[in-house]
UniProtKB/TrEMBL annotation:
Key words, A-Z: 2Fe-2S, FAD, Flavoprotein, Iron, Iron-sulfur, Metal-binding, Oxidoreductase
Cofactor(s) required, per the database record: FAD
Annotated ranges, domain FAD-binding FR-type: 1-103
Native species: Pseudarthrobacter quantipunctorum
Pfam families registered for this protein in UniProt: NAD_binding_1
Protein name: FAD-binding oxidoreductase
Superkingdom, taxonomy of origin: Bacteria
Annotated InterPro entries: FAD-bd_FR_type, FNR_nucleotide-bd, MRET, OxRdtase_FAD/NAD-bd, Riboflavin_synthase-like_b-brl
């Protein structure tokens, strides 16, 4: 492990540096890796985490939210990574995987996320900046408060580096750091002017995805232009038109 970056009280970005010169598969924008760790009970457990930055040839970045059990046990892997993994430790990552990948076109792109669902969006934004993209890019994000918004500084800086990048946020609890393009409550895509003929990428909890996808379709967005990733079991199946 090359570096640990504290993003919020419950989110840490881990930076992994390769330690040999074997050929590695480059990541695509929006993909994830699997990390496999030895748990305290002696069992090796795999978990998937989205890559939050474009590859630089030596490092890979992924963010982990500490899972606090609410009537259930705490997240075993997330708490192990937060508590026990230190700079200098060796970990094993898989090659990048995932089918929700940003398409390289000239069309506008709208990314909608909630909570830790911003991580694949951060990876997509990083790839867009690295490629010098001229696309119109809009990030929509919902969170509890500005202080709980993971990777907020990174995505804000990357959007500023794009020729036409913008962000709108929805916070349940506003404060002085909310920003001028912030709304109170749950995400409502009807509150912003969406670009015409855009591609949409969604990531977050199931109720969030259902709500945002339904709202977009009601506004005339073709279902085939909406890609989504559920953080958790995929309990619903989109009908592509």
């Amino acid at each position: 492990m090359a570096e640990r970056i504290q993003e919020t009280d419950d989110v840490v970005t881990f930076v992994v540096e390769r330690i040999d010169e074997r050929a590695v598969k480059p990541s695509l924008p929006g993909q994830y890796v699997t990390i496999k760790m030895l748990m305290k009970d002696g069992v090796h457990q795999p978990r998937q985490y989205s890559l939050t930055r474009a590859d630089d040839g030596r490092h890979r970045h992924f963010a982990v939210k500490r899972v606090h059990g609410q009537g259930t046990p705490d997240g075993e892997m997330s708490n192990l990574l937060h508590n026990d993994v230190k700079v200098g430790d060796e970990v094993v990552l898989s090659a990048p995987f995932g089918d929700v990948v940003l398409e390289y076109t000239d069309r506008p792109v709208v990314m909608a996320s909630a909570g830790i669902g911003v991580t694949p969006m951060a990876g997509m934004l990083s790839h867009l900046v690295k490629s010098g993209s001229q696309r119109q890019v809009m990030l929509l994000h919902a969170d509890d408060s500005p202080g709980s918004f993971p990777l907020r500084r990174q995505v804000t800086e990357d959007l500023a580096l794009l020729s036409d990048g913008s962000m709108h946020t929805w916070f349940l609890n506003q404060d002085q750091d909310s920003g001028s393009s912030s709304f109170t409550g749950f995400m409502d895509v009807a509150a912003v002017e969406l670009p015409l003929d855009a591609e949409y990428y969604l990531c977050g909890p199931l109720p969030f995805l259902q709500s945002v996808r339904s709202s977009l379709i009601s506004k005339g967005v073709p279902a085939k232009d909406i890609q989504y990733e559920v953080f958790g079991p995929d309990l619903w199946q989109a009908d592509f038109q």
